[in-house]
Amino acid sequence: MVSLLSGLPVSEGLTVSTGTRDTGSVLYSSLLCHRVVDGLCGRQPPQRGHYSASWSSEEWLELLRSLAALFCHAVGTNSSDEEVLAGLVDAGSSHAESVRTVLTARRQEIRDALLDRSNSISSAALQDFDWQLKLAVSSDKSSSLHTPLLSLSLDVRDNTALQSVTMEMNREELNTLISSLEAANKVVMQLK
Predict the structure, then answer these.
(1) What is the DSSP string of 5-56?
(2) Which of 8, 73, 99, 187 is least buried, going by the fewest C-beta atoms within 10 A?
(3) DSSP string of 102-117?
C-alpha cells in the first residue's frame, strides 16, 4: 500500500538521531525510500521513530512491506520508469517521483542484493553430468515392456564436497524435467 506515502510531508526538516535538523533539499519520501533499499541490501533499515507522527505501527509495517515489494518487483521484472510511475498513481506525483528516482539510482544495488539472496538459498552447483539411454524389454510383471528409460547422473558440488545424484526417468518424467529446467533458465535470463 504505497499510497501511505501520501501521509508523509514532501519536504520538511528531518530530525535525525543526533538531534540536528536538516532543512536542506532532502525529501522525507526520498530518504525513506533510500533507507528501505538499505534494508533490502542488508544495511540499516528505516526506523519508525523518525516517522512516528506520520503512521501507526500497522501502517508503518504495511508501508515498508509495500515499498520493499515494489522495489523487488520493479527490479525483478525490469520495469520501465513509466510502469513504476503508473503503479504509484495513489501516492501522489511528488512521492511517486521520489520512489522512481531512488529506484533509478539504486537499481543495480537492489539487483545485486536480490541475486545474493537467491544464491544464498543453496550453494550447490552442477559440476558435471552423464546420461545413458536404456531400453527396458521386460520386468517381473510384464514379459514385454519395450520402454525407453534415461539414466541421468549429476555431479553436484556443495561447497567443497562432490556428491553424485543418479536418477532414472521414463519419457514423461524426462519431459517434466526438461520443462522445469527451461522455466528455470527463463527466470535466470530475465535476471541478467
Answers:
(1) GGGS-SS--EE-TTS-EE-SS--HHHHHHHHHHHHHTTSPPPPGGGTTTT--
(2) 187
(3) HHHHHHHHHHHHHHHH
Average pLDDT over residues 104-110: 91
Note the pTM of the prediction, 2 decimals: 0.58
Close Cβ partners of 87 (under 8 Å, ≥ 6 residues apart)? 2, 70
Instruction: Convert the pLDDT of each residue in 57-76 to its tens digit.
Output: 888 888 889 889 888 888 88
Q: How far apart are CA 50 and CA 55, in angstroms?
A: 11
pLDDT band at 56 (very low <50, low <70, confident <90, very high): confident
Closest CA to 173 of 144, 152, 142: 152
C-beta contacts of 40-43 below 8 A and 24+ residues apart: 40/68, 40/71, 40/72, 40/110, 40/113, 40/114, 41/109, 41/110, 41/112, 41/113, 42/113
Strands 147-158 and 161-169: antiparallel
Distance, CA of 112 to chain centre: 10
**88 DSSP assignment:** T
**54 pLDDT exceeds 50?**
yes
Distance CA 63, CA 3 (A): 8
